[in-house]
Amino acid sequence: MLNIIIEPTLLLGGIFAIFMIFLYLIRFINPNLSTDWDIFIITLGLVYSSILIVHGWRLDPILLFSQILITFITISFCWVLIRQREI
What we know:
Layout: H1 8-29, H2 37-55, H3 61-86
């Protein structure tokens, strides 16, 4: 049984999944910026976002806040790494 409810975790999981798909598309747009390690990170990110979407309704507010922090730290870390690869 899937219990998907419209909550902030659905939005957070969707944003993270879109960001991981964008990271995957960089591999085809500019292959010089991607490495083989990126596929592993993208897979973990998509699994993480699917867990948030399917089981996010069970999160307490403090756990949701920690998931938001983890998501923004991951996105900013990926952004910095991509910018450093351009140099």
